[in-house]
């Protein structure tokens, strides 16, 4: 019994290291998103850090329109980044979990 417990603890520590490594890796995964007319484009990491924003000149003439474009495009990028990050972290966490009946549904 203790051997199983020690093995499980070791596996959990290993999984924790893998999760941390995956979080760092998400800093290098870039998500590009554009407005529907491609007048605005943003690049963010899977950890939701903004890396680049490109704005077409005509958007600079209308503050409200630019704000709307930024909100819509950034929200789409954030949703995609969150999805990518969650999938990666979930896969690592699921891989490291002991086989306990019923736990599979937590990582889907």
TrEMBL record:
Q: Mind telling me which InterPro entries this protein's record contains?
A: YbaB-like_sf, YbaB/EbfC
Which cellular compartments is it found in? Cytoplasm, Nucleoid
Q: Which domain of life is it from?
A: Bacteria
The yes or no answer to whether the keyword DNA-binding is present is yes
Q: Does the keyword Cytoplasm apply?
A: yes
Annotated keywords: Cytoplasm, DNA-binding
- SUPFAM superfamilies registered for this protein in UniProt: YbaB-like (SSF82607)
**What's the chief localization of this chain?**
cytoplasm
- Family per UniProt? Belongs to the YbaB/EbfC family.
Q: How does it assemble?
A: Homodimer.
HAMAP family hit by this protein: DNA_YbaB_EbfC
Give the function comment from the record. Answer: Binds to DNA and alters its conformation. May be involved in regulation of gene expression, nucleoid organization and DNA protection.
Protein name per its UniProtKB record: Nucleoid-associated protein V1I91_13490
**Native source organism of the sequence:** Maribacter cobaltidurans
């Amino acid at each position: 019994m203790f051997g199983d417990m020690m093995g499980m603890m070791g596996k959990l520590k290993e999984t924790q290291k893998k999760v941390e490594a995956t979080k760092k890796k998400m800093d290098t995964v870039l998500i590009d998103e554009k407005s529907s007319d491609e007048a605005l484009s943003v690049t963010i990491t899977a950890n939701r850090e903004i890396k680049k924003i490109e704005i077409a000149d005509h958007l600079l003439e209308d503050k409200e329109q630019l704000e709307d474009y930024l909100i819509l495009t950034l929200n789409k990028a954030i949703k995609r980044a969150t999805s990518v990050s969650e999938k990666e972290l979930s896969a690592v966490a699921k891989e490291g979990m002991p086989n306990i009946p019923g736990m599979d549904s937590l990582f889907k």
